[in-house]
Amino acid sequence: MSYWAWWQGGVVLAGVMVLHWLVLGRMMGVSGRYTALIDRWRAPPPSEAEEALTAEELSAALRELTAAEFGEGALEAPLEPAAPAPVSAAPLSLGTHALFFGALVAGGLLSAVLGAGWTPSFAVRGAGLTTLVEGRPWLTPLLLGGGGVLVGFGTRMAAGCTSGHGLCGTSRLQPGSLLATAAFFAAGVGTSFLLQRWL
Amino acid sequence: MRAVLGTLLIGVAFGFSLSQMGFASWDELHAMFTFTQPRLLLSFITAVIVLAVAWRVIACFSAPRWSPRPIHPGTLAGGALFGVGWALSGACPAIVLVQLGEGQLAALWTLAGIVAGNGLYSAVHRRYFRWTTGSCVER
Question: What's the pLDDT score for residue A53?
């Protein structure tokens, strides 16, 4: 199959990142979603009751207590204007993260259906990877699973992956993102040249 | 509703684009990392340049509060480990899901690895490290 031209891919990728910010009010960061999902799964939030209290309910309860303590007059005192809430203050729900992951899967599926056709299989794809694991079936779980562990460990350690650091962080010239991106790219190049010896 | 629809559409668009770019292919990624095929690298650089302009434009019309991404003790080592894992498995955290959607079911190994690695880091961090890493998605 033929892939998108380099400029096309670049522009569309950037567009998706900008949309993520404009529509969802936060920077795209896929590894952060894994962290959120895994942490929530390991330790669910203790109390639903506190989260269930809306701003209006909280305000009403405070007014009631204030009136009881200082009299109704205290409520007439001018109030400080409330600071605007930060856009991304509310934590995303587990369902939202799961929906995003499901949507990524759906995107890949759509691409396959519209392209070469959807033919799911457990066989590894690509000449390079196939050559590597040929005659060594135990190498597939080792290469993919082991590589996956490094990806999960490393992205959480660096607090970001290709989207959060590589695209959204570097384009804002964030020092942590520039260093992380340089590190993962250099390591990827080094590892790939090492793998090349077995291809 | 806006969040649900937005998450769904952006996720599908992101997954579809990554697949159409060839980012979900082990061979294409290997070709990028060994500089035998410049397409993906050029796409990446183009995206960063377009984004740098886009953030400037957005900052003209609003005062966005973007979280800073400072260097911390895990940045270099974490990035390097991720790079090795990416080159070996051919997947980053988003790509693995796109691969599964494409029907590359062997990527289930990679997904299991990423989930295990993420959980493992949190245990290792609590036990041995003393710094704050921050997070990609502000939760």
Answer: 61
Residue A18 above 90 pLDDT? yes
Residues A123-130, mean pLDDT to the nearest whole number: 92
Q: What is the ipTM of this complex?
A: 0.94
Q: Give me the domain span that covers residue A163.
A: 124-199
Listing DSSP states for chain A in one string gives -PPPPHHHHHHHHHHHHHHHHHHHSS---HHHHHHHHHHHHHS--S-SHHHH--HHHHHHHHHHHHHHHH-GGGGGSPPPPPPPPPTT-SPPPHHHHHHHHHHHHHHHHHHHHHTT----BSS--SHHHHHHHTT-TTHHHHHHHHHHHHHHHHHHHTT--IIIIIIIIGGGT-HHHHHHHHHHHHHHHHHHHHHHTT-
Q: Measured between beta carbons, which residues in chain B are less than 8 angstroms from residue A144? A: 88-89, 91, 106-107, 109-110, 113
Inter-chain CB proximity B39 and A6 less than 8 Å = yes
Region B60-78 average pLDDT: 92
Overall domain count for chain A: 1
Find the CB nearest B6 among A24, A123, A149: A24
The domain segmentation of chain B, as residue ranges, is: 2-138
Could you give the percent of chain A with pLDDT greater than 90?
Answer: 67
